Amino acid sequence: MFNDEESAKLALSDTSKRISEIKDRQWKVATHCALILVFLATIFNDNSPWFKTKIPTCYQYVLVAAVVVYFVSIFTQTLKNIGRFKNIYNEIASTWLSDGVKAKYQGEFIEDEGRISVSLAAAVIVLSVLVAITIATR
Known about the structure:
The protein is mainly α. It has helices spanning 4-44, 57-96, 99-105, 114-136. The N and C termini lie far apart (67 Å).
């Protein structure tokens, strides 16, 4: 059985690993959605040499919307999970770390990567709008 200090070390290590994994999922979902949107834009192009089947315009919009809904649902869940694990980590760290370490980090032990998250979301949303414009203007 672990004592309190060993339990705190294990919890800090596990929580920081989970936060890192969740941040990696954000990058992956943004990358996958961007690739899917580029693929859709390519096959929706009437001059595409790879895809000769004509997809009705309404279905094209539905596919783009489905990709955006997929992205938003997973991305918001990762943001919620990061917030949850960040709170757990900060609570454990503020309880078990020395006052000097607490003062150095000012109570925030996990970096806030809000600008990166906003950039990822904006990139996917802008790309989806560009695909929709491409559909509308052909």
